[in-house]
């Protein structure tokens, strides 16, 4: 049946929606039927990409998150088309609410009964947000101990290391490595070059394909985007999620 990808992280501004955007494109590149739901009540980034098939779900009521509104999402996931890949991009502000909903309503069991495969995705970033993103990942591990988790490591803001120890030497890896289906290290490059290219690409809400093929994109930028895009495709393929 379908494959469901929940992208969750309690810390905002660490590249979560960027992961959703790239995963959507990669799965589509590999010939998958891709659907997506954006439940971020603050920044519906994924839904703003008009090239993609994304449904934006309003989970707010009177300025607060209304858990019952996740019922619409559950209905859509259980009845997802056969062989489809469904991405759920959830905002940092609704991280706890969606996690609680999934647990209280036995959503994973319902999806399993429907024959679907479920992956959780979390992002860990270097720099000041390292501790917060590790905490978010830890909550996911504890809350969904039997579910495979894809950990995206984003060193853009700094090395993912403490006292010279890398992620695979962290306590969280020691305690939960059996849950980690894959570790995906986002490719890095010169921030003034590919970093700026990516910023502009996402600001325009363009896919890699559109950016690379645009007549207004310079030869140098096209080359850098193409190289980065090929690296992302390799990462997703090696992660074994498509």
Automatic annotation (TrEMBL):
<dbReference type="InterPro" id="IPR027417">
    <property type="entry name" value="P-loop_NTPase"/>
</dbReference>
<dbReference type="InterPro" id="IPR002586">
    <property type="entry name" value="CobQ/CobB/MinD/ParA_Nub-bd_dom"/>
</dbReference>
<dbReference type="Pfam" id="PF01656">
    <property type="entry name" value="CbiA"/>
</dbReference>
<protein>
    <submittedName>
        <fullName>CobQ/CobB/MinD/ParA nucleotide binding domain-containing protein</fullName>
    </submittedName>
</protein>
<feature type="domain" description="CobQ/CobB/MinD/ParA nucleotide binding">
    <location>
        <begin position="7"/>
        <end position="46"/>
    </location>
</feature>
């Amino acid at each position: 049946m379908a494959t469901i990808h929940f992208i969750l992280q309690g810390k905002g501004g660490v590249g979560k929606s960027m992961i959703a955007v790239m995963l959507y494109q990669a799965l589509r590149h590999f010939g998958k039927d891709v659907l997506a739901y954006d439940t971020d009540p603050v920044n519906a980034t994924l839904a703003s990409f008009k090239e993609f098939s994304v449904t934006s779900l309003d989970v707010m009521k009177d300025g607060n998150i209304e858990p019952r509104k996740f019922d619409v999402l559950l209905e859509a996931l259980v009845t997802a088309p056969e062989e489809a890949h469904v991405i759920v991009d959830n905002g940092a502000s609704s991280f706890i609410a969606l996690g609680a909903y999934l647990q209280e309503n036995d959503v994973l069991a319902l999806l399993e009964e429907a024959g679907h495969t479920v992956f959780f995705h979390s992002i860990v970033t270097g720099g000041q947000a390292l501790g917060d993103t590790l905490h978010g990942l830890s909550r996911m591990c504890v809350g969904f101990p039997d579910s495979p988790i894809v950990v995206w490591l984003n060193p853009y803001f700094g090395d993912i290391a403490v006292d010279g120890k890398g992620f695979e030497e962290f306590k969280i890896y020691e305690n939960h490595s059996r849950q980690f289906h894959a570790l995906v290290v986002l490719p890095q490059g010169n921030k003034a070059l590919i970093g700026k290219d990516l910023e502009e690409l996402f600001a325009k809400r363009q896919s890699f394909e559109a950016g690379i093929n645009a007549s207004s994109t310079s030869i140098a930028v096209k080359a850098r985007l193409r190289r980065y895009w090929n690296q992302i495709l390799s990462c997703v393929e090696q992660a074994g999620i498509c």
